[in-house]
Design goal:
single chain; 155 residues; mainly alpha; Four Helix Bundle (Hemerythrin (Met), subunit A); 5 helices; 0% strand
């Protein structure tokens, strides 16, 4: 397969990926208080993950964004941001995992989650048009939201 054909196939794939992410972002409304980012449809059984599993997957998604920024790979950026914006809730929500500072965590978590979610959608939607510096700045905002919640949760 020649370089021209590879470029054509890549362009088609990228267009499909962008269209799918943009359509999903436009339809998604965010309710931080009570949501499941990847809610299964009515014919699927809910998959349950621990908080640790969800957080490790979010870390992999942020790593994907950062790798994409460093290598100028807009697909990696878009996919990583999509993974963050549409992550599942942990099994049972946050309540079973909160061991201390419950009142503060419950007050801070929805705001931090909204910041992370909304900014991840911004990154996904602008991954093909924004400069790498702009994407890096938005990614730093995602991390500030994560760390803000972790500071309270782990205190």
């Amino acid at each position: 397969m020649g370089p021209k054909r590879i470029l054509t196939v890549y362009s088609i794939f990228l267009t499909i990926a962008i269209t799918g992410i943009s359509a999903g972002a436009a339809e998604h409304s965010h309710d931080s208080a009570n949501h499941m980012h990847n809610a299964p449809d009515k014919n699927q059984k809910a998959v349950e993950f621990t908080l640790k599993e969800v957080m490790q997957d979010l870390a992999a998604s942020i790593d994907r964004i950062n790798s994409g920024i460093l290598t100028n790979n807009r697909l990696m950026i878009m996919e990583g941001a999509h993974g963050i914006a549409h992550h599942p809730n942990p099994k049972g929500g946050l309540d079973p995992y909160i061991k201390k500072n419950a009142d503060i965590v419950k007050k801070v978590a929805p705001e931090m989650d909204k910041q992370v979610h909304d900014t991840a959608l911004e990154v996904a939607n602008s991954a093909t048009t924004a400069t790498m510096k702009e994407l890096q700045t938005k990614t730093a905002k995602i991390l500030r939201g994560c760390v803000g919640c972790h500071d309270v949760f782990r205190d």
